[in-house]
Amino acid sequence: MQEDMRQEPAVKGHYKKVAVGCWFTSTGRAIPQMLKYEDEEGVRHTIGQIQVRKTNQEQAAGFLLQRYECSALIYGTYKTFYLLYHPGENTWDMVLP
């Protein structure tokens, strides 16, 4: 996993609020392991075995944001997606491009 401090372009795609389970290293770095979300019909879904490809920290509208480029098996297909952690709100978004 590579940590990058460059300014990346805004993530475009379908945003979904998610709950994320993380593993924290001895140095305090968060590594997402799995996520859960609820679809439009109220059904809860779990995505596990997340592979983090790249992460970077950035400022968006004056707020700190941690961006994770990830991949996982989603609906039977291996897909790339982004997880955005908002430490000020302690919330996560999943973005499917």
Question: Which features characterize this protein?
Answer:
97 residues, mainly beta, 8-stranded mixed beta sheet
Describe the structure.
With 97 residues, the protein is an all-beta fold. The protein has one domain (16-96). Helix content is 0%, strand content 67%. The chain is built from no helices and eight strands. It has an eight-stranded mixed beta sheet, with no helix packed on it. Strand 6 and strand 7 form a beta hairpin. The radius of gyration is 13 Å and the shape is globular. The mean pLDDT is 89.
Helix-strand layout with pairing:
Blueprint: E1 2-4, E2 14-24, E3 30-38, E4 44-47, E5 51-60, E6 63-74, E7 77-86, E8 91-96
Parallel strand pairs: 1-5
Antiparallel strand pairs: 2-3, 2-8, 3-4, 5-6, 6-7, 7-8
Question: Summary?
Answer:
With 97 residues, the protein is mainly β. The chain has strands at 2-4, 14-24, 30-38, 44-47, 51-60, 63-74, 77-86, 91-96.
